[in-house]
Amino acid sequence: MYTCKVMDGGLGPKFEIVTDTDLDVPIVSTSIDSRHSMLLSLINRCLGMEIVNTKGRGADFFGISHPTIHHLIQASPGVRKCKGYVWTKFEVNPSYEYTPDDEASLSYTALLRSISFSKSHMDPGIKAEPPSGEYHEDHTAALRSLLMS
């Protein structure tokens, strides 16, 4: 588990990813897309293969592009003082239903599926689906150590 934070960085925001196992070692950047891209590159390097596209989609990964979060940001006091903020007009859509992105760069479940799929094409003896929603311990430990590095 990890937490994504957007913090005050002085002249602009600071984006942080921190694991629940090592709170003292956050991954920090002033660019949301480059922070996400660096994380994806680390995942690929840890796995030893190109599993995820490393083009950063930081706003989606941090949840900032979600309509509810976007609306809450605009409703926050002082948002009009933010230089460069692009105001968005919202229309209420009661039938809107959020569906999580099923891309490996944004979803842990999709990442596990991509890893399993890639491994199964390298070695036919490996199953295409992770057992009962959980992936092998060595991959989980590798990803955990990746986020802590």
Automatic annotation (TrEMBL):
Domain of life: Eukaryota
GO cellular component, one term: nucleus
PROSITE patterns: FYRC
InterPro entries per record: FYrich_C, TBRG1
Protein name, as recorded: Uncharacterized protein
GO annotation, biological process: regulation of cell cycle
One Pfam family per UniProt: FYRC
